[in-house]
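Q: I'm writing a short explainer about 2-amino-4-hydroxy-6-hydroxymethyldihydropteridine pyrophosphokinase for a general audience and would like to include a description of its predicted shape. Could you first generate the structure from this sequence?
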Amino acid sequence: MSENGNVFLLLGSNLGDRHGILQSARKLIAEKVGNLIQQSSIYETEPWGITDQPAFLNQVIEIETRLAPEEVLRSMLDIEHELGRIRYERWGARVIDIDLLYYKDVIMDSARLTLPHPRIQDRRFTLIPLAEIAPDFIHPLLNKTSLELLAASEDHSDVSIIS
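A: Of course. Here's the predicted structure. Afterward I'll give you a sentence or two in plain language.
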């Protein structure tokens, strides 16, 4: 698979040097997963799910890759591990979190991977940076653009652009 772009990843960090971690994640993704096409601004966001934890820095990036969706997932998990991610609590504090939001217009639901990511439409910390770099990208199941999903979102959490 070598088509250009339309593979979107969400990066998040709320422990340690958050800016440095996002930078390291982008570098490792470019080395191991695919070429960086574009990246959103970085946003500071309220924690989601478990709210008693530090604020996150979040960013959406678009890449092009020759890897299949499951290979992208495996590489993302390897990168998280390399950067010090330890999975002990769902939605808990973490050095790095990398979510595969979209893999082109692929729709799949396997034991390891659901595409598109099942909670894109529920999270402003995803929708705002996604709408910044891909306002017209259409969610293949909901048939709405990133901007339309953001306008319809019932999430009112604080998402502030910082760089």
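A: For your explainer, you could say: Residues 36 and 63 are 5 Å apart (CA to CA).
Q: Perfect, that's easy to follow.
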